[in-house]
User: What shape does this take?
Amino acid sequence: MYTLGIDIGSSSVKVSLLDIEMNITVAIAQSPNEEMPISAPQKGWAEQDPEIWITHLKKALQTLSKRNDLSYIKAIGVSYQMHGLILLDCKGNVLRPAIIWCDSRAVAIGMDAYEALGEKYCSENLLNPPGNFTASKLKWVKLHEPEIYDKIYKILLPGDYIAFRLSGELQTTISGLSEAILWDFKEEKISRPLLDYFEIEKKVLPRTVPTFSIQAKINEKAVIEFGLPFEGKIAYRAGDQPNNAFSLKVLEPGEFAATAGTSGVVYGVIDRSTANIENGTNTFVHVNHTSINKRFGELLCINATGIANAWARKFFGANLSYDEINEEIKKVEIGANDVLFYPFGNGAERLFQNKNIGASLKNIDFNRHNRSHLLRAVHEGIAFSFAYGIKKMQMHKVNVIRVGNANLFLSSVFAETLAAVTGATIEFYNTDGATGAARGAAFGAGLYATIEDTFSGLKQLKEVSVDESSQELYLNAYQNWLSNFDKIHS
Assistant: This one.
């Protein structure tokens, strides 16, 4: 008996089969092997056709089916890139490409809403400025594409759309509404003042279902289209960052998870609904939140981590694999011989009040530096940006950060740098977003009775802790990065 985890990213689609009896992942697949394209018709825009997610989901499932019998799947969990906007007409057709998480077009709209609704309401009720999130993107469509807006029947987040294609059901979760900045935390309902200000009718929002529950059944069309069993049930859905935290069993106040995929995130669990607007972090409903045991996730986002690393590889190390880059930069001294990298070149950064401050490389000397220095500076600069952001979180003292054994954390230089400048131990586990979604589905469908049962297969693989012999060198390099950053962006 299996559960299936689906992880819809902006780079790729991953799927994972979890054996319920053994509580181990028996198969994984990913499509495509290279990053999915992101369209930018205008500066600051970022769009994807939702059909590309469907295409690669089918390919990943076909890969799984070659060596595994998918008819044994009993429940399905969906993880997805947050903050996207998909518009459907009354026939379920997509009206325009999805406006995805790193799209910056609605920044000004969100800022205007923040001023109009007031700092008090946004801080106490929304816990976030409307910013560049889903609700503001919808208002942009209303203002600039009224002919499309008039055809909208429902709006969906990316994970809601995947669930719709599998079941025909139009649903979302409270966690999803909170990430869209449509949820009133104080009133514990959809924010009427925000809908009224944006002139959005509540009827375009789908109904809510619990994060862990039998949300929908696979329909006959999906059985044929995706090769999934008719008895399969969708039993979990969550945005990629709450799901990453869940996959690492980060569920209680004071626990932290991180990831460094296309973007980089540090996600800490808190038990109070407090805003941190001035410092540029966001607060959303966590997956295990209830009205009695309140759980929220404070999210620090750096827009460019993996995408910055991919850019650096393309232009500075095109003939090297990522593994070869990770080995090559170990040979370069800590601090990259004063080369500095600032990874803020992937759209408006929440950390800087939704400003697009741009990326930069500093101090390059053609007589002293080679590609190894530049590549190491990229890994260090991304780690420094994490540390810079962590200091702005509500719980900025971090003792342990849990991560999957994947993405930029595969770089020992990156992990060692982050540990040295934060003082935290980095713990690596045998999981990823797709496996987390599969475990979420098992718990949501009642196949595991408790959270402890659900995570019995989660194992720590290794850890990277502070190396006192090199910490001073890392801290000096970080201070150099900070002082130059202050000069550039003061």
Q: What stands out?
A: The mean pLDDT is 96.
